[in-house]
Design goal:
The chain has 4 helices and 5 strands, in the order ααββαβββα. It is an alpha+beta fold and about 180 residues long.
């Protein structure tokens, strides 16, 4: 009897390993497709639209946007975040939006400031669904550790942890000069 229990446990373990391996292979194939599409053109608009489209697909989101830092308002040190892809393209995000406040506080140190910690990698932040708002999953867009924008995706219900990881892994680097949206 103990041998059959061990055999059953091993079968379940192998099935789980196979499932995890298949999931990772699928994700790597997706990354290869993203890379292939991005290499078609180094045009900034193409890269932005491809990145946004893959973020929606990879997380199962049905809406969202991508915003990049632009010039600051006169007399303000806070960068303006202008939506460059997705819903409300062309609009400037509200500085009072909780997500904007969070990312600006966490990722936007003053240039050359002593001891200003710069994140080495982007980490997604989940905002749970509420009665009036969909769930949002947002990730800072970084170039060489410098915060240049936010990618946010939305879904009617909360995102899974795997969606957060996929968003983090599938966010390709933007080309140099991307911190100056047109």
């Amino acid at each position: 009897m103990p041998h059959s229990a061990a055999a059953i446990a091993n079968t379940h373990l192998y099935a789980q390993v196979d499932k995890n391996l298949y999931s990772r292979i699928t994700e790597l194939e997706t990354l290869a497709q993203i890379d292939q599409q991005l290499n078609v053109s180094l045009d900034f608009d193409h890269v932005v639209e491809t990145t946004y489209r893959w973020a929606l697909q990879g997380t199962g989101a049905n809406d969202g946007w991508m915003a990049l830092c632009g010039l600051t308002e006169p007399g303000s040190a806070e960068p303006l975040l202008k939506i460059i892809a997705g819903r409300d393209k062309g609009q400037v995000l509200s500085q009072s939006d909780p997500m904007v406040v969070l990312f600006l506080a966490r990722c936007s140190p003053v240039e050359g400031g002593a001891g200003a910690a710069r994140p080495k990698e982007a980490s997604a932040q989940a905002f749970p669904a509420t009665k009036n708002n969909p769930a949002r999953l947002a990730i800072p867009i970084l170039i060489a550790g410098k915060f240049i924008g936010i990618l946010s995706v939305e879904h009617p219900t909360d995102f899974s942890e795997s969606a957060s990881e996929k968003l983090k892994r599938n966010l390709p680097p933007l080309p140099a000069g991307a911190d100056s949206p047109g």
